[in-house]
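Minutes, project check-in
Item: structure for the 161-residue chain
Input as provided by the requester:
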Amino acid sequence: MFGAIGGLLLVAAVGIVVWSQVGVMPAEPEPLAAVRADDRIVVTDDSAGIVLTPAAGTSTVGLVHIPGAKVDPWAYASKLSGVVADDGITVVITKPWLNLAFFDLRPLSAFTGLAPTSIDGSSGATPSAGCGRACSQATQKGSPSSRRTAPPISPRPVCPC
């Protein structure tokens, strides 16, 4: 009895891991190449996330972006590069475990700590499945509880869902 249940759990776990890695939407090569070639942006690839910082100087405001389910985090670099290049905001795009934000239990500080300088304010912005994870980050100790009323770039996490 326990052997069958254990086997079923093992098959389910392997199935989730395989499913999470198959069909991941990749970044489009041309927009990503444009971000990497943009001399106004410094791109740093870390195991926990992708950091886009303004090359012109230090940033005191940051944005933590949690990707949607099964989307390559690099796919968001071109969409968020304008905030870095034009507004001087540091952006951290997280790399969720198994490409699924709801499996990623790391605290927000694991990502804000990737910024090269101290960030006075940070926002969280998320699409689809990452939204629930970002909203849960907003209620952690030391984080403001307001999620929906914050402007797009603010010292409070933002959850559009």
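Outcome recorded: Residues 26-138 form one domain.
No further action items on this chain.
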